[in-house]
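Batch 3, record 17
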Amino acid sequence: MQIGVIFDCKEFAVFDGPGMRQTIFLKGCPLRCSWCHNPEGLCRQPQLMVSRASCTDCGRCRQVCTHETCIACGACVPVCPLHLRKIAGETVTAEELAERIRKNGDYYARYGGGVTFSGGEPLMQADFLLAVLQRLPGIHRAIETSGYCEPAVFETIASELDFVIMDIKLFDAEQHKRYTGVDNERILRNVKLLCGGEKPFVIRIPVIPGVNDTEENYRKTAAFLSGAKALLRVEFLPYHKTAGAKYGMAGMQYSPDFDPEGSIFISQKIFEEYGIRSEVL
Amino acid sequence: MRERIRKMRDFFVTQKGQRAYWKPPEDEYRLAREYAAAQLPATDRSAQRLKDVLDREEPVLFPGERIAFTRTVQTVPEIFTKEELEELKKSHWIHEKGDVCNISVDYARLLNVGLIPKRNELTARMQAWEKEGKREKAHYCELQISILDSVLALAERYRKKAVQEGNETVARTLARVPAYAPESFLEALQMFRILHFVMWCGRNYHNTVGRFDQYMYPWLMRDMEKGLYDEESALELIEEFFLSFNRDSDLYPGMQQGDNGQSMVLGGLNEDGSDSYNLLSELCLRASLELRLIDPKINLRVHKDTPMETYVLGSTLTKQGLGFPQYSNDDVVIPGLLELGYEKKDAYNYVVAACWEFIIPGTAMDIPNIEALSFTRAVSEAVEDALSACADFEAFYGQVKRNIVGQADELCERVKNVYLFPAPFVSLMMEGCTENAADISEGCHYNNYGFHGTGIATAADSLAAIKKYVFEEKKVDAEELKRALARDFEGDEALCNLLRWEAPKMGNDDDYVDGIACRLVADFADALQGRKNDRGGIFRAGTGSAMYYVWHAKDMPATPDGRHKGEGLGCNYSPSLFSRCNGPVSIVQSFSKPDLRRAINGGPLTLELHDTVFRTPESVEKVAMLVKSFMDLGGHQLQLNAVNRDTMLEAQKHPENYRNLIVRVWGWSGYFVELDKEYQDHIIRRMELAV
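Prediction for the assembled complex:
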């Protein structure tokens, strides 16, 4: 029995693929991009999230706590009078999750959509993801991924998908490692697989001020993608200042290693030169 | 938007330049005292008051305008003194201000005829009544004739002014209308403007616009065939016309600024199954899209074959943040109206009243907002009176149902002997009134009353919590719950948390609680079925709330869904304010489960979507799909908002920077900064749940 950890199910995800979709967020990610806006998606284990802004410090959560350090047991969740605490991370079997997705499968199908797996990094739970995908006959399945995994694994998963949304965060290998913590060699190999195939895909570039918003980065990316038949478009996702909003809730510090206030440079023209359609989200 | 429209919009809406022409406010009871002293009959008072206002109106023309008529008289005087009104209230139900309001007149009855031919008809009728010895009826015709004379005289003053100022367009238009039936689209729009203007001068309010795209279409088509307009120039004229709804609206009566009932209905099924959506419907949507004004309030009639492009255009309008269009589903509303006994031709011709209530133009003196049933109170009182004694949930629900019937009894009893102030001018546009020299205030073909139904989610959530925790899991003792509610959960925080955060909530596609909501809607409809009001009409059940969502919440003690005493109820047909729903898809699924053909007094599912959802054309299309899905699932009415809570908080802090921020309040949109803080805060609460 395949077991996985998810941290959210979002209805009506309008930017996650064609038609009306539900998006499932899988927990855990091998990358550590400092602009990440889903900090609760980083570690695989369930964790406590607290909305501290409205906390009145009534102390009820402390009264029920029996642990030195938090183990995400959830004892403090129901006692909060303002419902400010929750456990991010739910352990589910592949069948349970598939069942949940199938429940509204017809609804989403009727409006040209289906399900999208996001994260965290969904490929980090590849076996689980595969088991879920195989249980969704007739449902349009998409993924939103960093593409960071073994090409063999990627191919297996991709063969079960109808649509792929993948990031090329930074083209330069060294820079990529510096800002995301991992090498981009595998990622680009997986992009190449998509470029040579027929599965429709979209490439996303999170536009981070002073990190990847350069002419050079765009040009290299565009050249790399040039000629890919199944590439629908490139989407720019401008950095948003609210990216840090959830760090406090997760008990983490948001410390971007770039200037979040900096202005950003976007060039759709460069992609146009390579015959690639692009859109700013 | 063309430059001249932009300038006019700026002048009338932003600068409010027309205010410079307002006469000073006057003593509201000036006429009432005279009338009382002379012991004048009410119909005479109403006619004389209208003439008084019209006769004192002074023509104002603004440079370059093609559609004239702007109010200068600020105060429309009362026709009864305070004492007389108090006396009337002793023996009658006075609805709101007492005036005929919130109906939809058949403008074509004057528009297609012209006031001079109408005057001739009335003169002939007057003579006929006299011959029959029916003095009163003859006198009624005489009053109507004298009103038409005042309208014609005012139009003539306007025409002369136009000649004087060299505005040839207005001068030419007024040489034809309102005296005779319009021959061009421009004349038709000008004549509508005059008719609408006169209604407001007679203190009739919530003067709806009805199926404008239907009754105006022939004129537009004729002019377009003649080559007088192309789509763009027609759009420009429609925009200028739309501005006229925003000129005098600060003078219109309403609960809050913006609550003026100028609702327009576009599209809709014809009896033969074809769609009446036409070029004018499309142009009206586009005009509203460009102008971004709260009036007229756009309603879109849809059905299973409505093309996605129409929903997309509607959603693009929603993106503007106006809070409309509001959608109504012909596939549910028409069968619902037929079941209530409306004739086929009328059911297919339905429009909405000021907010959302489904009414019939020209033939209905329905009062669809006469009172409201509180679902929450039905539950709350059942807990108090019967919970401890009930062996199981069914027994308890039986008490809730009896309470619903009890409230229905009470409401039906309360709204007896309605007295409406006579409205001789409005009567000219209602079926049978001219033929019988009868005033619309005394009734029309349909005389049905409608009750809103408030707090359905709070009631269903409360019942679900009781079912689960008191009867099934036996986790909570009935007495303990009653005590906790009586103390507003003081000392029972754990219980409150359980009820508030853990219990099933309507809006999550959970049959456990949604099934209860289905029963509540059906039981409300059942409780009214077969009853007659004393005007021979029926009673209709609805899912709207209007301002009752505030009123009904104020004195309501804590409820078993974990709601604290005094905490608000959801607006209209929507989830409770603190329930965390899975998302809009679940909300749409939950709220389409009840048989809404039985809630045909109307009341929209209200959804708030964060404005970022509208960012790209593709995502706007998905919003359109969401709307369509509610209709496909059997929803009756939907209204959605593009919202951003941060913007509203900023607007509270710096209202001067947010004069144009428009929000949906209950059945209408208004300027956020002009609302009372109480309503602003409620809207911000709602935003917190935006998905």
